[in-house]
Amino acid sequence: MTSGKLSLPKPEPLLRVSALSVDYDAVGGNMVHAVRQLDLEIAGGESVGVLGESGSGKSSLALAIIRLLPKNACVVSGRIDYRGRSLAEFSPAELRAMCGAEVSLISQEPALALNPVLSLGRQLADVLLAHRKFTRQEVKARCNEMLCQVGFDDPGRVMRAYPHELSGGQRQRVAIAQALICRPKLLIADEPFSALDAATQAEILELLQRLKRDLGLAMLFITHNAGTVAALADNIVIMREGEAIARGTMETLQASGDEYVQGILFPEKSLANATHKEQPLVSGAPLLQVQGLSKKFVQKRMLSRKQFVVQSLEGIDLELAAGSTVAVLGRSGSGKSTLARCLAGFEAPDLGEILLDGNPVTEKKRDPRWQTKVQMIFQDAATSLNPRFTARQVVAEPLEIARWKSEAERMARAMKLMEEVGLDPEWAARLAGEFSGGQRQRLSLARALAADPKLLIMDEALSGLDMPLQAQMVRLLMELQARHGLTYLYISHDLNFISLFAREVVVMNAGRIVERTTPEKLAESMHPATRELVEASERLHAPGMEAAV
Amino acid sequence: MIRYLARRAAHGLLMLFGVSILLFLLFQAAPGDFLSDARVNSQISAETLAQLRVQYGLDQPLPVRYWQWLKSSAKGEFGYSFAYNTPASTLLWPRARNTLLLSVPALLISWLIAVPLGVFAAGWKGRWADRLFSSGTSALLALPDVLIALLALLIALKTGIFPVGGMTSINAQDQGTWAWLRDLGWHMVLPVGAIVIGSLAIILRHVRASIIELMDSSYMRAAEGHGLPRFKLLFGYALPAAANPLISLFGLSVALLLSVSLLIEVVMSWPGIGPLLLEAIMARDLFVVIGAVMLSTVFLVAGNLLGDVLLYAFDPRIRRQA
Questions:
Q1: Which residue, A180, A425, B32, B132, is the most exposed by fewest CB within 10 angstroms?
Q2: Residue A44 has pLDDT above 50, yes or no
Q3: Run means of pLDDT, 10 residues per run, chain B, 322 residues
C-alpha cells in the first residue's frame, strides 16, 4: 500500500500536524499534558490509524483538529495545516464551512451524537443545508442515497424515525451518513466502535472500508483495538501518554521488539501467561434458578392507537451453580440487558420465576436480602457512579444503606475493599469523577463487593475499557472469585476473554436462549446467531491474536 | 394519547378534591368566622347571632358543611357569599374572567420574550451581553412585585399616558364595541407589563440554564462539528432538546404568574380574583375564599395539563413511555 508513494515526489499532504501539544487544566490547578510534540501527516485517500490506551491523548488530537477542544484544554504549541494552510488562520466562518464539508468527525458514542428530539431525516438534511443550497427534492434524494450507501434498505423509514427508535448500530450508521453526506475529503473517526456489539462493529468496519475505497476518503482512525486498525489503516501511529512512540505499517509494528507495542497489539498474550485456567471448585447446589422468565415492552405513537409490542425476553430458563461463571452472549437488542435487569430486581418480569438459593423471589424490591446477595456492575462506570462522591463514599454507601456496623468500621472496610480491587487507599478522598475509566470500573467493583454479595451480574462491565485494561480486570475478577467464592453472570457482546473466564456460555437472540455451550465449543457451533458473533469477533481481531490465547 | 390525558386529568381532579378538603380544615383551624365582628357589636343580641349562625350553616359540623359545599358546587354555585348574599359563583365568574384577561396575555408575553432572550444569553455565555443580562435578571428577581406595581402606578400618574388603575373608563361602554375594546386594552398595558416584569426573570434564567447545560452535551458538540450555523444550533437543536424541562416549567409558571397577578390586581385595582380574595379573607367570607383559591388551583391544574399535552407533542420519547 505504501510502496507506490515512495517513488513519486511527495505531494502536499491533506493534513499535517506538526509538533502539536495540548494541555488540560485539571481539577486542583494541575496541568495535564494530553498531547506532546505530536507529528502526523495524512495524504489524500490515505488512512492513518492512531492506536493507544484510554488516556493516551488520542481524542484530544481529533478534537484539536476540528477545534472542538473543551474549554479547559488548549493547544500550547505546534500547528495543524489543512491543505498547506494553518488552521489557526481560519476565521470562525471558514472553520464552520470546513467542518462537516471538508473534514468531518464521527464521535465516540452514537447514542449521544444524535439529537433525541429531532427526526433523523432532519438532522441529516441540516448538515447538507448548512454547507450548500439545495431544493427540497435534491435534499431528499441525497439523504436517501446516503442512507442507502451506509447500508439501510428503507431510508424513508429511517428519515422519519427518532434516535431512540433505532439500535446502536443503526444510529452509528446514521452518524456516519451525517459525516459523509457533504462528501468530505477527510474523515476523523474517534473510537467509532467502542459502544457497538461485535457483529455491528464488523458491519460498520466493512462499510468504512467500502466507503474509503469508493469515495477516496482519507481517514484518521482513532481506536484502542489493534484488530480494527489493522483492517482499516494504511499507516499506524501508537500513542502513549500523549506521545507517538511508534509508527509504521501493521507488519513493521508487529515485528517490533518494543514490549509496549506488543502489549497493545496482542493484549490477550499478556493475559494468557498470567492467568491459570483452572476454575474454582463448584459446589453442586444451584445459586440461582430462572424458570420461564418473560418480559415485554410496549411502544406507542402520537395520534395512533397502534401499539408495537417489543418482546424482550421469552421463556428464559437459566441455572447458575454457586461459584461458577456463566457468560451470556448476544448482539445488542437480544435481551441480555433486560435479563440482567430482571435478575437484579430493576424490572419485574411479566411471567416466570426467579429462585435464589432455592427461595422464590417475587417481591424482590422489598427484600433487602436479595439486594445484598445480588449486585450489578454496569457498562459505564462514568455514569453509574455519582461523580461528586469521594471514592470512600462510593464504596461505603451500600454498607450505609444496610446499616452495617459503625461509621469507623464502614470506612475501614471501604479502604480494605479499595485495596482488594487494586486501588490505592490513599485515593479514598478523591472524587469519583477524577478517576480514569479503568479505575472507575474497579471502584464500581469495590462498591458491588461491599455488600458481600453471592452473585455479581456484569452487564458489559468490560466493554467500555480498552484491551489491556480488560485483561487486568479479568485477572482481578478471577482472583476475587477464587478468594470469595463469588458467582458471576457475565453479559457481553464480544468474545474477548470468554474462553479464559467463563465455564458455560449461553447465547441469546431475539429474547430467547438459542444455545448453551462451553467456550471451547463456541467456535464449532452451527447456530446462525452464534456463528455471527464468532465470525464478527474473528474479523475484528488482529491476525495472530487467536494464536496468543 | 387520550388515555394519557385522561389519566392526567384524573390526577388534576383528585388534587382539586385534596385542596378543597385542606381549605376547609384550614378555615376550621383559623380563629373566628364571618360573625366575629358582629359578636363584639353590643347592638346585636345573642339570639340574633345564634339565628344567623343557623342561617349560614355555621353551626353544622365540618363534614356536613363540606358535603353541602360539594352539593352546591355540583349545581355550579360553589357555596354562598355571606357578605353579598348571592351564590359565590356569581361573584367568582366575572372576576375569574378578568384575571384570565391579565394572566393569559402576560403568560404568553413572558414566554415569548424569555425563550429567545434566554437562548441568546446562553449562546453568548460569558460575554458582556450575557453578563449584562445576568445582572439584569438578578436585579429583577430582587425587586418585590409590590414595588413593580407601585412603579407602574407612578409612571401612569407622572406621564398621564396610561390610566391609573381600574379596568375600563367610566363612559367606555357607551362609545361602541371598538372604542370599549381599545379602552380595555389601554387599561391592560400597565398591569400586564408589571406581571411580565415580575415573572420574567425566573423563566429567563431557567431557559438560559437549560440551554447552557445542553450546549455541552455530545450531540450538540457533534452538530457543531458538522458545521451547522450557530443560529440553527441554538434554536433548531438546543431549544427543542431543552423543551422538556422548559415545558414542565411552563405548567409551573402558571402558578407563579397567578401569585404575581393577584398582588398586582390589588395594587392596581383591577377587578380580578385578587381584590375579591383579599376582601373575602378580611371578612372571613368562607365560601368566596374557598371558591377563589379553588379557581387558582383550577388554573394551575389546567396549566400543568397543557404542559403535559405539549410535552407529549414535543418529545418523541414521552410518546413512547406514555
A1: B32
A2: yes
A3: 81 90 86 76 81 80 87 84 85 89 90 91 83 86 85 84 75 74 85 88 90 85 86 89 85 81 86 88 86 87 85 76 54
Calpha distance A48→A40 (Å, rounded): 9
The whole-number pLDDT of residue A9 equals 53
Question: Where residue A491 falls among pLDDT bands split at 50, 70, 90?
Answer: confident
User: What are the grid coordinates assigned to A544, written together?
Assistant: 495472530
Three-state DSSP string of B179-247: HHHHHHHHHHHHHHHHHHHHHHHHHHHHHHHHHHHHHCCHHHHHHHHCCCCHHHHHHHHHHHHHHHHHH
* Identity of the residue in A68, A131, A162 whose CB atom sits nearest the CB atom of B221: A68
Residue A506, number of CB atoms within 10 A of its CB: 22
User: Chain A neighbours among B 191-220 (CB < 8 Å)?
Assistant: 217-220
* Cα four-point dihedral sign A139, A141, A147, A150: negative
Q: Is B127 an 8 Å CB contact of chain A? A: no
Length of chain A counted residue by residue = 549
State the pTM of this model: 0.67
- A299: nearest CB among B226, B313, B320: B320
ipTM here: 0.72
Pairing of strands A85-86, A243-248: unpaired
Report helix angle B88-123 to B176-215, nearest 10: 40
Chain A nearest CA to B241, separation (Å): 6
Which residue type occupies B91?
L
pLDDT digits (tens, 9 = 90+) for A60-113: 888 888 777 777 778 888 888 888 888 888 888 888 888 888 888 887 666 678
3-state secondary structure of B267: helix
Residues of A in contact with B1 (CB under 8 A): 300, 302-303
B94 touches chain A (CB under 8 A): no
Q: Which residues of A touch B322 (CB under 8 A)?
A: 300
Closest residue by Cα to residue A454 from A328, A324, A340, A349: A324
Is B154 in the A-facing interface, judged by CB distances under 8 Å? Answer: no
Q: Is the Cβ pair B228, A117 closer than 8 Å?
A: no
**A8 pLDDT higher than 60:** no
**Band (A311; pLDDT cuts 50, 70, 90):** low
A68 to chain B, any CB pair closer than 8 A? The answer is: yes
Binning chain B into helix, strand and coil, the percentages to the nearest 5 are 80, 0, 20
A217-256 tens-digit pLDDT: 899 888 877 777 877 888 888 888 788 888 888 888 888 7
Does residue A94 belong to the interface with chain B, where contact is any CB pair within 8 Å? Answer: no
